[in-house]
Hints:
Layout: E1 6-11, H1 21-38, E2 42-45, H2 59-69, E3 74-81, H3 87-100, E4 105-110, H4 117-122, H5 130-142, E5 159-162, H6 165-174, E6 178-181, H7 192-204, E7 216-220, E8 222-224, H8 228-248, H9 257-262, H10 267-278, E9 281-283, H11 285-299, E10 303-306, H12 313-326
Parallel strand pairs: 1-2, 1-10, 2-3, 3-4, 4-5, 5-6, 6-7, 7-10, 8-9
Helix pairs in contact: 1-2, 1-12, 2-3, 3-5, 6-7, 8-10
Amino acid sequence: MDNGLRVSLLDRSRTRAGEADSEALRGTVGRAAHAERLGYDRFWVAEHHSVPGIAGAAPAVLLAAVAGATSTIRLGSAGVMLPHHQPLVVAEQFATVSAFAPGRIDLGLGRSPGFTAPVRRALRQTDGDFAADLAELHGFLDGTAEITLRPQPQGPVPLYVLATGSGLQIAAELGLPVIVGGPLLGVGGDPAPGLAALAEYRRAFRPSSQQPEPWVAVSLDVLIADTVAEAADLLLPEAWAMAQSRTTGVFPPLEPVQAARSAPRTPRQQEHLEQTAARAISGPPAQVERQLAELLDRTGAAELVASGSTFDRAALAVSDAELAALFGRP
């Protein structure tokens, strides 16, 4: 694997059956400290609201805790959902976090809607202008806005766009780097549409003060174990939760492998489970290395953001260590 590529972890603070939500948050902080020891370049957290299986609702607050448990690894949000917030408030939050981790904070931004209609109402979500909000936020952070941000950021806070098709276009127009995942990567499916979208992003990219050239990170579930069967077991709790989400509307906490394996499922749930597994990269180290090398070469990505999760935290820690080793990290 090209050791010049960045490798990062995305942790959504997944809850586990039988555990308090607070344990998921503590698990995220512990995983970040472990990622730093393993030599990862960056550790990302996310924003979800009122989702039973996810405790990560407040990225800036969580990153402040992670900053206190780390000292060198870059920290970011992947991401803050900008339609839920005023740009000034987001800028203030991340400028504040930067006081605790100077020069280590990155701000990834997306525009996914709230999980359900009641959540969207509670967030006072609006159909705002994402491009205008991004530009306004950037102005607060780089000191070009009509008001001065307080506190002042301690070092630059680079912006990243969590991009779908239209998000890629906005990022290109504003000269911002992108993080892409899901169907755009073509893992387990047709890569052609995603490759075309990335090519258009690169073609239309307008250099900015932050980013002189187009820049792409790819994000997907990556899990490593000694055998194909063991890796499939690692992936099963997340895939089963996703299958339930697609068919019941509830994204549940992770269950133990045996519980997920023995749970009754409908044909439609089985189909969703298999689709989720197909979109991940999992297996023994050599197999994962081959698949990642092909993906990174195909997309021209500069960074891998591995987002895998599983019920067994010890097994997840081993997987994280194996992935770091593939990129030549200590």
